[in-house]
Amino acid sequence: MSAPTATAPADLGALVDLLRGRRLAVLAGAGISTESGIPDYRGPETRHVERRPVQYDDFVRDATARQRYWARASRGWARMTGARPNEGHRALARLERAGLVEGVVTQNVDGLHQAAGSGRVIELHGALDRVVCLGCDVRLSRAEVQRLIESTNPGWLRLGAEAGRMAPDGDVELEAGIARFVTPVCPSCGGPLKPDVVFFGESVPKPRVAEAAGIVSRADALLVVGSSLAVYSGYRFVRQAEKEGTPVAIVTLGETRGHPHAAVALDARLGDALPALADALGA
Ligand SMILES: [Zn+2]
């Protein structure tokens, strides 16, 4: 038996009491997108899955790593673009429209907050629908790069990604045919292309961190949703809130490393808990 968690789903009342009358900074993690069919790296269901996501240094230095990345990710993209926002995303957008949200700081790269109607979103780890050239810094849309891939690898994208397990960064587990895959390069300078997301081993750009920190500073409470806070890029905002005397609330499935810092923690599905919270706060 596992130890009992601090609070049960029945404790929505404690969450509402804490957050009522406060303007929220929201810190969102992969857990909010699992109900949209995008798997979590570290959620309760995937904790046992071993996966080696591409490291930034390898991607920059090693053409084989880029080939492998683009071969797999290009097949996962169709499934990523098929994902739609869920009740949890929509509840956050509703809270923002009601003037109760200072901003959403998200660790997700799937664009689902914006698709749900959230206006002020800081994408800490970037966005999968943008691509940047490491040679000349030009920005491309992901759709444009997918077209490049299709033109140099006819039929590749139509092979489908269904057989491979997909990760939240759009990566798909597949091996067949990768050696023959032609890696897309920048149409302007021929340089290597990288999705505009923060890879493992790469830092979040400082101005982006500062913008997110500003949202946390201006808010009266920090609401963490669907993040295990396992990576420092998100956890730092819990520490910041604590330092600034701003209460922290956590709604997620399972224990997180932020729990010792939280005034209220709710172990619940976000698709249930966030709409109920928005209702209770009058959004
Ligand atoms: Zn270029």
Automatic annotation (TrEMBL):
Residues the record lists as binding Zn(2+): 133, 136, 186, 189
Highest taxon above the source species: Bacteria
SUPFAM superfamilies in the cross-refs: DHS-like NAD/FAD-binding domain
Keyword Glycoprotein assigned: no
Sorted UniProt keywords: Cytoplasm, Metal-binding, NAD, Transferase, Zinc
Cofactor annotation remark: Binds 1 zinc ion per subunit.
GO molecular function: histone deacetylase activity, NAD-dependent; NAD+ binding; zinc ion binding
Protein name: NAD-dependent protein deacetylase
Name of the gene this protein is made from: cobB
